[in-house]
Amino acid sequence: METIKEQFNNLNKLKLFEIEVIDKRTNEKDYIIFDIEIDEIQNTFVATYPATTEEEERSIYVANTILNIDDDISLDIHLNQLYEDCVSIIIDSEFYEIN
């Protein structure tokens, strides 16, 4: 049986979420891309994205959200949870709102 990491690495799809948003600063439609990777050392999914708040914009670090990998839970459940986390980031954003 494949581990969650193996299943993810074997996906024949782009490993990202693309979420349609409205940029509050320009009132124009845009898309935020959340690039998804696995951190092998920490055993986590990491989704990186462009800054959505002034604090993230000022930070020297790349904005990201992290989800621990649990091999007792399916890949689908992990990705659904990660997607919900990404949507929450947009909901809490100073710069964007869900379109």
What does this structure look like?
Helices cover 28% and strands 33% of the residues. By secondary structure, the protein is of the alpha+beta class. It has one domain. Strands 4-3-2-1-5 form a 5-stranded antiparallel β-sheet, covered by helices on one side. A hairpin with a 4-residue loop joins strand 1 (16-23) and strand 2. It starts with a helix and ends with a strand.
Short description:
With 99 residues, this protein is α+β, with helices and mostly antiparallel strands. The chain has helices spanning 4-9, 54-58, 75-91; strands spanning 16-23, 28-39, 44-48, 64-68, 96-98. The chain is built from 3 helices and 5 strands; from the N terminus they run H-E-E-E-H-E-H-E.
Largest sheet: 5 strands, antiparallel
Poorly predicted tracts of residues? none
- Record field, number of beta strands: 5
Topology as H/E string?
Answer: HEEEHEHE
**Average pLDDT number:** 96
Number of helices: 3
> Looking at the structure, what is the overall shape?
elongated
Major sheet: order of its strands?
4-3-2-1-5
Strand content: 25-35%
Beginning-to-end CA distance, first to last residue: 39 Å
Coarse structural class: alpha+beta
Relative helix content: 25-40%
